[in-house]
Design a protein that fits this description.
By secondary structure, this protein is of the alpha+beta class. 60% of the residues lie in helices and 21% in strands. The chain has a 3-stranded antiparallel beta sheet. Strand 2 and strand 3 form a beta hairpin. Helix 1 runs antiparallel to helix 2. It is elongated and about 60 Å long.
């Protein structure tokens, strides 16, 4: 029982640390910042791009950011073991 309680506390601590982190991705001058809760914090668009180019860059940034957050969470989980 104590082991499960200890693991739960470690998980809460890890989640709290991850939430404070910010991740950035940039593609063709479009820059997006996301926090560890996978919430978009900031979006900077590139006015020199067409609408379609901006849409593609935003999509690529968001996909990259989600991978970064997931990888950071996985690394923190591995460090708990």
């Amino acid at each position: 029982m104590w082991d499960k309680l200890k693991q739960a506390k470690q998980l809460q601590k890890m989640q709290s640390e991850l939430q404070k982190e910010e991740f950035q991705e940039e593609e063709k001058g479009v820059k997006i910042t996301m926090n560890g809760r996978m919430e978009v914090v900031e979006v900077n668009l590139n006015d020199d791009l067409t609408k379609e180019e901006q849409e593609k860059a935003v999509k690529e940034c968001l996909n990259g950011l989600m991978r970064k957050v997931q990888m950071a969470a996985a690394q923190k989980m591995q460090s708990m073991e």
